[in-house]
């Protein structure tokens, strides 16, 4: 949305909150009427959970379902818990199986079984087939409702299948072609079907298929889908039988969530999974406090280093002036390296096996940056204070940048190697570690150069 549209939605949100507080629901409903679906989604993201539930009840049934499907799973979860049981049961039943699983992953454990019991046997079975896969597997994000065809089928037969399955299928634009054992032998696009005659055989129209195993990592498969530009990717089980399909919109949704999580964890917070303005204060506090405690404990390393070299600082108090500069430069250098490597890992450009190549490159990058900053620090500190002080600052900047870039480059690779999210190992931990290491380097160089 444009800034102007966002300002308009903000004004509407303020108006609706005031109308709800006064109990004037008729006027509130009138204020919602001109808004389209994306605007209503943005509006709900700006309201409290209680006000959002009231607004949702004011929407017409058809608009309400469209809005609900466009919300993030976290916001859906909040809304579900604020609505009445009858409304929840209806909404849950009208969702696609894969969307239900997204929502279930956000709901309290006590709520999900009750919702599943309210489904028809067919919908419960479809949802259970997706829920059976582990949390990070692509099988948990696929749609099990797929229209298939066979090599020996004709275009006319296939089009009749498509029309019959329009109400349930996740996509009709790419159809998997399977053999008698439900093994994928190719795919055929709706464009090719529409361009062919009814008597043409599917075997003459189908092309080779890219497939993914249901147990593969969801982010990896989603990125592969977008990189290949596929509208849909068939998902198969361990016996190569078709079990579902991943559509391009679901792939984009997976990547958006993963990137949001990485960005949050690199900043030292847990991802919110819902709009900031609609997130309760206690949840914001909970998302940050654990990381702050961890980093506070880690910062005691820096305090310990300063205590160890207290005598050195007492003999040359000017050294204390440069501590913020040095640890700040080291932390920033390490964070830059970690961010670059984490992104390359996510894009599949490197793997943990490339640790030597990455370390070699980051050492050279860090050394180059250190020499540039070190020369600048040497000149400025030498002119303002003393050339011996300038030499200490120059050498320290060179060493700190080299060490920080190296650590920042290999930590995400180490995290991936031990099956931990690389973002968790990135900025906060690197900053804490490099602060302590940088101070040790600084005081050791100062003692050697200044003879103290």
Automatic annotation (TrEMBL):
InterPro entries: CBS_dom, CBS_dom_sf, Mg_transptr_MgtE_intracell_dom, MgtE_N_sf, MgtE_transporter, SLC41_membr_dom, SLC41_membr_dom_sf. Residues 142-205 form the CBS domain. It is found in: Cell membrane; Membrane. It is a multi-pass membrane protein. PROSITE patterns: CBS. Belongs to the SLC41A transporter family. This is Magnesium transporter MgtE. It comes from Microbacterium bandirmense.
